Amino acid sequence: MRFKTVCTGCSLLCDDIMVDLEGERIVSTFNLCAHGEEKFIKARGTERLLKPFVRDSNGVREVSLDEAAERAAEILLNAERPVLWGWSSSSIEAQMAGIELAREVGGIIDNTGSICHGAIWFAASESGLPMATLGEVMNRADVVVYWGSDPGHSHPRHLSRYSVLPRGIYTQSGYEQRRVYVFDIRRTRVGKIANTLIELEPNKDYELITAMRLLLKGRKLRVDKVAGVSTKILEKVIQEWKERDFGAVFYGMGLLASRGKYRNLEALLRLVWEMNEYTRFVVLPMAGHFNMIGFNHVAASVTSYPLGIDFSRHIPYSNPGETTFAEMLQRGEVDAAFIIGSNPLLNFPAKLARKLTRIPLVVVDCFKTLTVKHATVAMPAAITGIEAGGVAYRMDSVPIILKEFLNPPEGVLSDADITRIIVEKVRKRKN
Ligand code: SF4
């Protein structure tokens, strides 16, 4: 049997994936990149977490989901500053249940965006966010800019599906009609196909963007180079951009991790706004996890804050740095954590990861990750987009419906259902 489905390998959420099934076995797939293929192969791999377990003074023992949820509720209610973290690889439905859970236990809910692409919400609140859908980019963009991002690694089908190669309504000549600009500190994969590659010095993004804004305003620079880039080249780039019809700037972690952090993005957003005085320009995040952007939308619509939301005051409160997970962990404030679809023990710096191993951890995951191996309570989840349905927001904030096409392993529920069960347990304990 053949199914058309969506790949959740990254936030591009490619919706043209074909899967051939024989019973419960995937026999072939079409249109997946290697990254997505890996996700589909892993679905039936040996590294699946299949049974809930709890860890106590007697060691680790397998338990029923009900018992694991009961213990999770106990841990979260007993903690003073529990943090619910992850959520970028969960459906919107799970994220909504997570916000309920945080509210019930008076905890903090935060997603992985707070250490990467969440910066867009702070930058956008100061300078606005000129955005477009990927469909518009495909149909209109004749300037494509990758800034600190290499889709060859992170979003392998980005160029072929939306930005560079496809022929759109107003871009009938496809690649020949578009000009590709890459700003990076090294020659990346996408840099090799760029019409203009700007190799800038590390940590100089802010200076470069500021210089480009000045050039756009017609000012003359009194230096030959900015951030290692010739002023003449910058003048040429600005002139070319002004003469084109539609520009799409895709920024990645290279911009956000460079000195200046979200201020770099704020400056880039201002440059993009200013370009709109001459032509149409938009900016889009190259978000990583498939529903990172979704969490920010859901959290903002329910609580008014996109991330790092603290319910300990009985009303939502957020102050990035004060109520975001990594910083709270650093200060030793977190006394229990609920981790869903994330592996901080592997991905956090060793100093922070060590702090995590000293507090009770409730983990919901599909796989036996390092964080699962250290969990106090672990609960297996179905894989969203393969074994469980739901909604996720693509990198351009377009909601995409995910449908399940395989049955999850016996007794394994979706992360949304597991979170709802814990919410019920917490409510019962409180009454
Ligand atoms: S680009 Fe991303 S969403 Fe598309 S197939 Fe590859 S991993 Fe999946």
Strand order of the largest sheet: 5-4-19-18-17-6-7-15-16
Distance between the termini: 49 Å
Whole-number tally of structural domains: 2
CATH top-level class of the largest domain: Alpha Beta
CATH architecture of the largest domain: 3-Layer(aba) Sandwich
What is the total tally of β strands?
Answer: 21
Overall pLDDT level:
95
Shape: globular
Note the topology.
Elements: E1 2-5, E2 17-22, E3 25-30, H1 34-43, E4 53-56, E5 59-62, H2 65-78, E6 82-86, H3 92-105, E7 108-111, H4 119-127, H5 134-140, E8 143-147, H6 151-154, H7 158-163, E9 179-184, H8 189-192, E10 196-199, H9 205-216, E11 225-226, E12 229-230, H10 231-243, E13 246-251, H11 253-256, H12 262-275, E14 280-285, H13 292-303, E15 309-310, E16 317-318, H14 325-330, E17 336-340, H15 344-347, H16 350-356, E18 361-365, H17 370-373, E19 377-380, E20 390-393, E21 399-402, H18 415-430
Parallel strand pairs: 6-7, 6-17, 8-9, 8-13, 9-10, 13-14, 17-18, 18-19
Antiparallel strand pairs: 1-2, 2-3, 4-5, 4-19, 7-15, 11-12, 15-16, 20-21
The structure holds iron/sulfur cluster.
